[in-house]
Known about the structure:
single chain, alpha+beta, Chitinase A, domain 3, six-stranded antiparallel beta sheet, two-stranded antiparallel ribbon, about 45% helix, EC 5.2.1.8, chaperone, peptidylprolyl isomerase, peptidyl-prolyl cis-trans isomerase activity, rotamase
Amino acid sequence: MKKKMVILLLTLGILGTAMGCGEKKDKTEDKEGTKTEQSSQEDFKLTNKDGKVVAVDVDNIENYITLGEYKNLQVTEAPKAAVTDEEVENSIHYTLMTGYDQVEVTEDRAVQQDDTVNIDFTGYMDGEEFDGGSAQGEDLRIGSGSMIEGFEDGLIGHKKGEEVTLDLTFPTDYSVEEMQGKAAQFKIKINSISQVPELTDEWAAANTDYKTAEEFRTAQKDMMQKSIDLEYEGQVKSDLFAMVVEATEFKEYPEALLEQGKKDVRNRMDQMYQAQFQITLDEYIKQQEISDEEVEKVLTESAQTYLQQNLIVQAIFNAEGIELSEEDYTAEEAKFAELNGFPDAETMKMYYGDLNVLKDSVLWNKACDVIMGTATVTEQEPEADTEGTQE
């Protein structure tokens, strides 16, 4: 397959996590300023004509698939990780550094990594000041990488009140073309130095919902472990569901749903290209000279993949006698929000944006809960460290 089609396929491959993410909007602006409707929102219907929430609304689902075995499955996974004390301390340091006000340094010490310095600076090229190269009262975190190479490191070791001169070179891939690879001199004055706050009982009580540093540390560790646990559970569910897909026979696809699926995939790809690359899907296809046949093949295969998931989910619901009312779905949606670390379902909806994608995810998770209910999950034995045992 040609490289340009591989890029198109890779885009489709990440749609599962990328499509619909971001703020919920009814319309998007394309490059020319025209508005394209997000039909996924306007066409969204939670329930079918019978008032039920279904993954696919078809009669005689057995005409389309023969559901593979989904009970008593066995899967082997890598051991679930446990958060280490070092990881907790690193996370706390990053949280204190980026999420809270820094504390001004009053003792006579030099700039260190992760400090925030307030500086005045002026940049020169060929002895002349250049546009955009100067600032007054600028806060800069050392190690942020927000300045060109050598600027931040060049301040380490210097103290408040010092004036520093740095001879640097702009990178060859710098965003401003006329500055690429050019030598520049920066004259910098350090006005103040601030540091990451120290985690103490007093600081925790004053700045967080916790009374002591240990409570804050424990909460941080619990949050990190929960994230690992959720990731592990998600991997197990994905692996088990993949086994069901492999064991299922797909006879044909409901024509209307397949055509709608192709439209949805195309719309999501178009939104993604505009958001990330500032180009429409049609413009990309034209630029890369991708044929209509190639595009049709990719869209069809992708729509079939999404349909396979939804057909299996609905077949499991049918086999288990699971019928979801709107109220039932709302409860499942709330569970799914908590499972994924959202404070509530409404926040999750804003993140997903595409309500059809969210609905598919909620129902998929419900089906996976059924599969996991009878599954046996075995963790791999850690490999013995044989290094140094061989002569």
